[in-house]
Design a protein that fits this description.
Number of strands: 7
Helix content: 25-40%
Radius of gyration: 16 Å
Distance between the termini: 31 Å
Order of helices and strands: EEHHEHHEHEHEHEH
Strand order of the largest sheet: 1-3-2-4-5-6-7
Strand content: 15-25%
Structural class: alpha/beta
Shape: globular
Largest sheet: 7 strands, mixed
Number of domains: 1
Number of helices: 8
CATH class: Alpha Beta
């Protein structure tokens, strides 16, 4: 069961949905402030806290890439629960998140057409077979933001070290499909400024879907 936390204007037409953990929640007020500083589009943000990060956000099982915790295949169940928050046809819904939550958002846009924009901040596109999956699927959101830290590839883990090559592959794929898309480079490694990076992602998709019906 996803635990929900609400921020922003509850009556806003634009609804941002973000999958979060405890660390994300601790920085949520800073994130909200940063979104408001970057765009004047009014929004409501639903932060949905997952119980098991590696299981609930993974589209299919994969071996651990750090530590001993493998990845599960709980994304389909999580998405079904996320979609219960998108029932009002008068609203515009956006999905995003940081790291594995960013990967989940990209995957979800291939499984559902409900999202106006995808805000994928430092998404875990190194995830095994994910780029092949994207190539085979129709991406159903018209607008997508991608970002990565310029030092994220500097890791001894060979799987995660591929992240820079993979994010470029994803960006090229989306450009080839004529999506409204950007790839922004942030300074630093993966474990810094996740609140500000996620805020930039949501603000960008809000700005670039102005007037879309």
């Amino acid at each position: 069961m996803l635990k929900s936390f609400e921020f922003g204007n509850p009556r806003a037409q634009h609804v941002l949905i973000q999958l979060v953990d405890d660390h994300d929640l601790a920085g949520m007020e800073k994130e909200i402030t940063a979104i408001r500083a970057a765009t004047d589009v009014d929004f409501r943000l639903l932060a949905l806290q997952v119980a098991d990060w590696n299981r609930d956000l993974s589209p299919w099982p994969a071996p651990p890439v750090f530590g001993k915790v493998p990845f599960g295949n709980g994304a389909k169940e999580t998405l079904q629960e996320v979609l219960t928050f998108t029932a009002d046809p008068a609203k515009k819904y956006y999905l995003g998140g940081y790291s594995l939550a960013g990967l989940f958002a990209l995957w979800a846009a291939c499984e559902s057409a409900v999202f106006q924009g995808i805000a994928a901040a430092s998404p875990s596109v190194w995830f095994p077979a994910f780029c092949d999956y994207l190539k085979e699927k129709t991406f159903q959101s018209p607008c997508v933001y991608l970002s990565l830290g310029d030092k994220e590839k500097k890791t001894r883990n060979l799987v995660m070290a591929s992240v820079e090559d993979r994010i470029r592959d994803v960006f090229d794929l989306f450009q080839g499909r004529n999506l409204t898309c950007t790839l922004e480079w942030n300074k630093g490694n993966h474990f810094q400024d996740n609140d500000i990076r996620t805020a930039k992602a949501f603000a960008w998709v809000l700005e670039h879907t102005r007037g879309n019906e």
